[in-house]
Amino acid sequence: MVDAETLRQQRIAGERAEGEVAPAVDSSTVVLLRDAPHVDDGMEVLLLQRHTRSKAYAGAFVFPGGKVDDADRWLDEALWTSADLAGRRQEIGADDEESTLGFLVAAVRETFEESGVLLAHRRDGTPVDGSDLRRASFVTARERLASRDDHWDWTGWLVSEGLTLDLDALVMWAWWVTPVHRPYRFDTRFFAAHLPAEQLATHDEVETTAMRWTPPSRALQEFAEGRVQMRNPTVKNLESLAAFSDPAEAIAAGRRGDVDRRRIQPKVVLVDGEVTIEIEPGAEPQTTMPT
Predict the structure, then answer these.
(1) For the chain, what are the domain ranges?
(2) DSSP, res 126
(3) Which SS3 state, helix, strand or coil, does residue 94 take?
(4) Could you give the 3-state DSSP secondary structure of residue 258?
(5) CA 99 to CA 105: how far, in whole Å?
């Protein structure tokens, strides 16, 4: 029989018995970028602070995103546009075209819900702008999506508003899977997107309680100084973004595939009795990074 201390260490290290590992739920996250007001800062990224009562990542600053819903995978093709959905399957690492569509639609939906930014246009090609987002119909739609009690399908609203989702505005950036020791796990595709002209981001005051636009390097400095809480994937993606001078450069790199899109699933291990994080096999374990 395994003693309590051994079991505790196994759980810390992510070595659970068969059947104990929580499934990793498909989810999408969007890294929204904009040109910084001050030229010297280059570009800024949107970070939202999770509610302190959230089941996952409570109090942490994150990018907008969330779980893929079944309805996302089957959204009518009249309500979205993509030049090559089949080609994006390989880029995203999805099982099929339905899963590919699900990741992309969820990315747009969750970004609208959590940040108020909608990557979409009218049927005549006119982009959604700030005046649209302030209209009662848009405000109500966002509130219903954000509600924990109202499991609302936004398909009818998209039809009535004559909206088409701009899936090609999303560029695949990274792929992270939650370590097996955590009770809530996500299989997450990270997408980069430029903040649409004339749109402003606002936190939803349900799942998120604050927001900030900040240069990646500044966010990393504040994390290193212990002034903000962030999770491992957020930090690592900020590190990759810090290499670019503006949103156009970053998104162009993403479109070329000049970013690390490998499936990364960190592992929590014990080294000399100390909890450490192994990002990749053979890499030096880290002791300061939350998973």
Answers:
(1) 25-260
(2) P
(3) coil
(4) coil
(5) 10
Q: How far apart are CA 238 and CA 223, in angstroms?
A: 11
Rounded to an integer, what distance in angstroms lies between the CA atom of residue 208 and that of residue 210?
Answer: 6
Distance separating alpha carbons of residues 64 and 133, to the nearest angstrom: 17
DSSP-derived letter for residue 153 is -
pTM for this structure? Answer: 0.87
Distance between CA 13 and CA 44 in Å, rounded?
35
Classify 233 as helix, strand or coil: helix
Q: Mean pLDDT across the stretch 66-89?
A: 94
CATH of domain 25-260: 3.90.79.10
Please tell me the distance from the alpha carbon of residue 66 to that of residue 25, in angstroms, as a whole number: 10
Binning pLDDT at 50, 70 and 90, where does residue 13 land?
A: very low
Other residues' Cβ atoms within 10 Å of the Cβ of residue 221: 13
Strand partners, 177: 187
Closest CA to 228 of 67, 3, 45: 45
Other residues' Cβ atoms within 10 Å of the Cβ of residue 17: 10
Number of neighbours of residue 58 by Cβ within 10 angstroms:
12
The first and second tokens of residue 284, run together, are 């030096």
**DSSP letter assigned to residue 279:** S
CA distance 10 to 232: 21
Which range has the worst mean pLDDT, 83-87, 109-113, 204-208?
204-208
Going by C-alpha positions, the residue among 54, 56, 154, 156 that lies closest to residue 108 is 154
Residue 8, CA distances (Å) to 24, 153, 178, 183, 187 in order: 22, 42, 19, 15, 25
Question: Per the structure block, which two tokens stand in for 127?
Answer: 């982009």
